[in-house]
Design goal:
By secondary structure, this protein is of the alpha+beta class. The chain is built from seven helices and five strands, in the order H-H-E-E-H-E-E-H-E-H-H-H.
Length: 204
């Protein structure tokens, strides 16, 4: 079960051929501002997954949260187009970090019997942007539901000069990190993509 409404995470799992159910979490994202960025992403991923765990009886629940960090500032999703424009100006011509926290819970008969978590970090280098670049991108509306006000898998690919690390982490779901967490339970994304959910009914 994917405890996220993100269409990007949904698409990545679908592309791998993995059957899953989406149960968007209503966990509040407030109250983590004093934590280090890595801890913020992990705390929110765990909270989202746990919110769903309390509403299902069996299965594996995945929570994820992606944040963008430039200098010491954590950028969430912009609230308005002007806010998005401000974020993009702050990222232009600079390097920032994208951190995604992941949390996995195994629920059996309504109880959490196992959990694991981790995070992935990618360095993203933005090219210098003109006011016109920013205005045109913001006008698409693509920036409004994404941390840092951009989605690398769309038109904003033209804003990125390079990156160091996992591309899929920037999209919102670091697949290799997720695979490493699942393998702690004797499951792999390759197994799920080729055999379906029957592989995950009795994790080791």
């Amino acid at each position: 079960m994917l405890a996220s409404a993100s269409p990007r995470r949904r698409q990545l799992l679908t592309d791998l051929g993995i059957p899953f159910t989406v149960i968007p979490s209503d966990f509040s994202e407030e109250g983590v501002d004093d934590l280090a960025p890595e801890a913020q992403a992990m705390t929110l991923a765990r909270g989202k997954a746990q919110w769903v765990c309390h509403r299902v009886s069996d299965g594996i629940v995945l929570g994820a949260d992606t944040i963008v960090v430039v200098d010491d500032d954590v950028l969430g999703k912009p609230k308005t187009p002007d806010h998005a424009r401000e974020m993009l100006k702050g990222l232009a011509g600079r390097t920032h970090r994208v951190i995604t926290g992941l949390a996995l819970f195994h629920v059996n008969e309504g109880r959490i019997v196992k959990e694991t978590s981790g995070y992935e970090e990618t360095q993203v280098h933005f090219r210098a942007l003109t006011e016109e670049d920013i205005d045109r991108y913001v006008a698409t509306g693509d920036c409004l539901d994404k941390a840092g006000a951009y989605g690398i898998q769309g038109l904003a690919a033209l804003l990125v000069e390079g990156l160091e690390g996992d591309y899929f982490n920037v999209v919102g779901l670091p697949l290799v990190r997720l695979d490493k967490l699942l393998r702690q339970w004797g499951i792999s994304l390759m197994m799920l993509g080729t055999e379906g959910n029957k592989s995950a009914t009795t994790p080791a």
